[in-house]
Every structure is written in C-alpha cells, then in structure tokens.
C-alpha cells in the first residue's frame, strides 16, 4: 500500500477499457523534486503495508518467485467449516465460518489458473439466506490482503488491540467484535493473487494477474463462482475496498454489471483521488485542510481555533482553502505586498507553521515539509496514515545537528517510518494466523507464507481511474448506491481531495442527489482500528446496506 505522497504520478486513462480499469497510481502528492514511491507490491522500497515485491532466484526465501518451475498444486477441496457464536447488542449471533480456496477456471479449457484464498461468515437461521445481502471485501493496494478489513474491524472476531491502539506485545490475541457487519450482511473476505495464501497455479503466470484488467477479471470470476457455488445469485451484492482497493471496487462494479451480475452498492474507504487533485496548484489546495486538521489535533493553533470541534475547524479549513488560499495561488506574483502578507499570516494561523517557513516555501506546503516542521521543536514527525500519531525522528547520520534547514527554511526530509502502521502491524499477522488455524481450523498450506502486506506481488501495471470507473458503473446501473468513508487525519487520502473528486464525478443529478452517501470520521487510514470511529462506521454502513438492499430504497 502506498504511503509516500511526494511526486507527481501520471494516470493513464485508456479508451474503452478505462471504464472497467482501476488506477492505483493516484495517491501520490506532488512535492519538491521527489518522485513518489512505486506502487504497493512493486519491487523497490515501497513503504508501509505494501512495501517490497515478488522476487526470484536471488537467494530470497520470503518473496514469491515467479521464475520457479512447477510447484505442488493447491488441492480443490471444500473449505473448512466451523459453527460459532458471538454476542451483538446483547443478543447471541450464531454463524458459520468458512476458510479455503476458490479455483479460478479458464472459461474455455475448464482448467484452473489460480486459487484465491478467502474466508466467509454467514449468519445462521436467516429466514431467506439465499436473498440475504452479501458483502465482499477486496483488500487494498496490490499486495495487501483483505485480512486487514476482516481481522482489523469488520469480521465477527477482531484483533485484540492494546489500550494505546497498538498491537501490543506477544502473546497477541483476538476478541468478539460487537461492531461486526455480520448482523446486516454475510461477509466474504477475498484475497487477490499474491496476497494471503492466494497463488497462481504456475509461478510464471503471476505477472499476468498483476495488471488492472486481469486483477478485475480474476476477482470478477471469484465473485461469480462464489455466488453460483453458494446459491447466492439472488442476494443483494455489495463490494468494499480500501485505499488503492477503492479503484479496484469501482472497476469491478462496472465489470460485473457488464457481465450480467447486478451490484447493489459499493463501499469505498480512504478513497483514491482523481488526477485533477494532483494537478498544479490544486494539489496544495486539496491537501491544506488535512494539514490544518493535524495542527488542530496537536494543539498548534490559537485558542479560539483549538476550541472548535472537528466539524467546525474542517469547515474553516475548507472555506479558507477554496477561497483566500486558492485565490492567492492563482494570483501568484501578481499579489500586492499587502495581500501576500495577509495570506501568509492566515496560513500561519491555521497551520501552526512559522510565517518565514510559509513565505520561503512560496505558500505551497507539501506533506513531507509539513510533517517535519510542525513538531520540529520536539523532534517528532507525523504518520501519513494517521496524523494524530507521531514518533521521534533521530538526528541525521553524521552529526547531532539534525537534517538541515532552519525553522525558516525548507525543512529536513521526513522519516521513512509510518509510526502508526508500525504500531498496528506488530503482532497482527501472528494473531491472525493463530486465529485461522485454531478457531477456523484451516490446516492448508501449513508451512506456507501468508502475504499480509508485501512479498507476494511483483510490479503491478496500472491503468484507468477511480472516477471514470465510478461514472461507468453508475451509467450502467443508475440504481447503484455508493458509500464513501472520509477520514480527517488520513494524510494519504486528504479529505478535501476526496470531496473534490466526488464533486467532479460525472454522474446524473439524480444519482448525485440520492445514491451517494459520504460519512466523515475523526480517524486516520483504516477507520476500523479506531474503537470510537469503528462504532460510528458500523452504524453508518449498517444503515447504508439496509437501505440499499430494501425494495423501498430503490
């Protein structure tokens, strides 16, 4: 998953296929003269959950080797099945859990080309199980498993986070999840080829799955096969994705509709941005409100601003960014000295940054410079995935003086560490694999590597765009419903950039007025790992699914 936002990334909008293609390259933020990190799962130095890619023949025992010869086949066998019970809202909720593989078979030859690992949870005793809503979670960026959504917050069991929201020390465990969505829909967590235990049947075939069209087609075949195998073709169908996976969901919705599989709704969490939000000065305008929210949270603003609620300060931030700030960027050197002095002062008041810093950066505040400057006096930097979480930034190697640049200068390069993700990731996979083996009784691939965030997917070829795919899906099905979760403290997906993208979505007035639900959260990326935010998210999604699946909601 992508976490570095410096550098311009070009999104290629393909003619014809763009309506069913998902573009995972749109999360980069233009900065100084730096280039954004490669896509998640690419071989070179990607940070966060999507770092590192598949390798081959170089003595590496962890990364998936696409140059390997034949491998032991994954057997075609029924998934393991267990019957369990949790308590939700004071009432027992009984369910059946399954974990296993779905073969992806070539339509012409009937031979399998890959096996996708999945888990699913179905409520027991439903009056009409075949018509009960089914919600597919499709993971995040290429290389990132759907396990984050399953075990992080939406499944019936959830990682037992420490009191500070981190994974804590071993032994790591899990608890019943009262905020699961299982009360509203049966849940399926599917892992694309190269994530979790999902593998191509022949290693050399791996790269053929790692492009936009093939990724969508393979997941489309999984959905079709699952619905047929489990007699769920008549169930209201929902698709959910996160981060770069939101582009996958948009493309998959259009793909399924084109293949006569109706989709009721889409859930996009930390939605990828349109290319327009990264073009020219718009990139600074759409980022600024998130920077203001970060400064507000860390109490770097004047008392009258610090006393505001999140909704109030975000409203101030939007208003300033779209009016005075955008006007100043547009005028540039045509501003009078008085105008420039005023906008510098207003920027300093709203961001907590020194006036000299703002002036020396020509009013254009990039994410890396903001992160290293806001808490410089405390030697702390922000986490891109959650600006509320900070960590100590060591002095640059070779001296005790820090990383260059005074308080009025451009600032040091930020730490490559995302402190929030480091806190979350520790123990998460260990706990999940223990849960998988002991509670779901899955015994397959007992010594295989479970690719949670990296190592199983090589370079990914991305084309298309979120907004083009969303528009195509709505054009094919004007009854489609969309839920977008927007997080105030996710610097990888600035909330105003998401709002900008939605405001420019090419859909009918009727769709815009009635079919799109946007909900805001005081959270960072992965809303569901925040206990307070998860409760609100569960409530919002429960209402969304119930309304979208009901005949009256059409």
A few lines on this structure:
This protein is an alpha/beta fold. The protein is built from 16 helices and 14 strands. Strands 1, 2, 3, 4, 7, 8, 9, 10, 13 and 14 form a ten-stranded mixed β-sheet that branches. A two-stranded antiparallel sheet has the order 5-6. A two-stranded antiparallel ribbon has the order 11-12.
Keywords:
alpha/beta; 554 residues; single chain; two-stranded antiparallel ribbon; disordered N terminus; 14 strands; Rossmann fold; ten-stranded mixed β-sheet; 15% strand
Q: Architecture, according to CATH?
A: 3-Layer(aba) Sandwich
Mean pLDDT: 85
What series of H and E elements makes up the topology? EEEEHEEEEHHEHEHHHHHHEEHHHEHHEH
Class based on secondary structure composition and strand pairing = alpha/beta
User: CATH topology, anyone?
Assistant: Rossmann fold
CATH C-level label: Alpha Beta
Largest sheet: 10 strands, mixed
Under CATH, the homologous superfamily reads Alpha/Beta hydrolase fold, catalytic domain
Strand-residue fraction? 5-15%
Shape: globular
How many domain regions? 1
Number of strands: 14
The percent of residues in helical segments reads 25-40%
Show unreliable segments. 1-52, 398-415
Cα end-to-end separation: 35 Å
**Which quaternary structure do these chains form?**
single chain
Rg estimate, integer Å: 23 Å
Number of helices: 16
């Amino acid at each position: 998953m992508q976490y570095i936002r410096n550098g311009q990334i070009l999104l290629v909008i393909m003619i014809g296929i763009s309506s069913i293609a998902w573009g995972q390259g749109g999360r980069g933020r233009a900065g100084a003269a730096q280039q954004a990190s490669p896509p998640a799962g690419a071989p070179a130095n990607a940070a966060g959950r999507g770092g590192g890619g598949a390798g081959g023949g170089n003595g590496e025992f962890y990364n998936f080797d696409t140059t390997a010869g034949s491998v032991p086949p994954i057997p075609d066998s029924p998934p393991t099945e267990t019957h369990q019970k949790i308590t939700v809202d004071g009432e027992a909720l009984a369910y059946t859990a399954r974990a296993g593989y779905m073969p992806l078979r070539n339509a012409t030859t009937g031979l399998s080309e890959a096996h996708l690992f999945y888990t699913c949870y179905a409520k027991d005793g439903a009056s009409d199980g075949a018509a009960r809503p089914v919600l597919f979670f499709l993971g995040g960026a290429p290389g990132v498993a759907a396990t984050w959504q399953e075990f992080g917050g939406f499944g019936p069991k959830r990682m037992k986070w420490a009191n500070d929201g981190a994974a804590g020390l071993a032994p790591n465990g899990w608890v019943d999840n009262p905020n699961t969505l299982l009360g509203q829909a049966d849940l399926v967590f599917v892992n694309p080829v190269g994530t979790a235990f999902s593998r191509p049947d022949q290693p050399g075939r791996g790269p053929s799955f790692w492009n936009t069209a093939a990724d969508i087609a393979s997941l489309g075949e999984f959905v079709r096969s699952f619905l047929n195998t489990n007699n769920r073709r008549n169930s209201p169908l929902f698709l959910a994705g996160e981060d770069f996976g939101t582009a996958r969901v948009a493309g998959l919705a259009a793909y399924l509709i084109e293949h006569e599989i109706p989709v009721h709704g889409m859930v996009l969490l930390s939605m990828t941005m349109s290319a327009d939000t990264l073009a020219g000065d718009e990139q600074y305008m759409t980022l600024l409100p998130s920077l203001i929210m970060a400064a507000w949270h860390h109490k770097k603003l004047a008392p009258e601003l610090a006393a505001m609620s999140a909704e109030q300060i975000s409203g101030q931030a939007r208003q300033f960014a779209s009016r005075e700030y955008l006007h100043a960027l547009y005028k540039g050197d045509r501003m009078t000295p008085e105008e420039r002095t005023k906008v510098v002062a207003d920027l300093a008041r709203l961001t907590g940054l020194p006036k000299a810093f703002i002036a020396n950066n020509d009013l254009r505040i990039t994410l890396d410079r903001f992160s290293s400057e806001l808490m410089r006096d405390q030697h702390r930097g922000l986490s891109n995935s959650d600006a509320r979480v900070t960590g100590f930034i060591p002095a640059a190697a070779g001296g005790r003086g820090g990383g260059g640049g005074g308080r009025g200068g451009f600032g040091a390069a930020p730490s490559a560490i995302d402190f929030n993700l480091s806190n979350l990731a520790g123990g998460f996979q260990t706990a999940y694999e223990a849960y998988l083996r002991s509670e779901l009784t899955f015994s397959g691939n007992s010594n295989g590597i479970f690719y949670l965030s990296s190592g199983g997917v090589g370079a990914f070829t991305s084309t298309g765009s979120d907004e083009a795919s969303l528009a195509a899906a709505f054009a094919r099905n004007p009854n489609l419903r969309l839920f977008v979760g927007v997080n105030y403290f996710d610097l990888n997906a600035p909330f105003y950039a998401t709002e900008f993208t939605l405001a420019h979505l090419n859909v009918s007035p009727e769709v815009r007025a009635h079919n799109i639900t946007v909900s805001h959260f005081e959270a960072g990326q992965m809303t569901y790992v925040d206990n307070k935010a998860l409760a609100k998210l569960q409530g919002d999604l429960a209402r969304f699914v119930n309304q979208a699946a009901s005949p009256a909601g059409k």
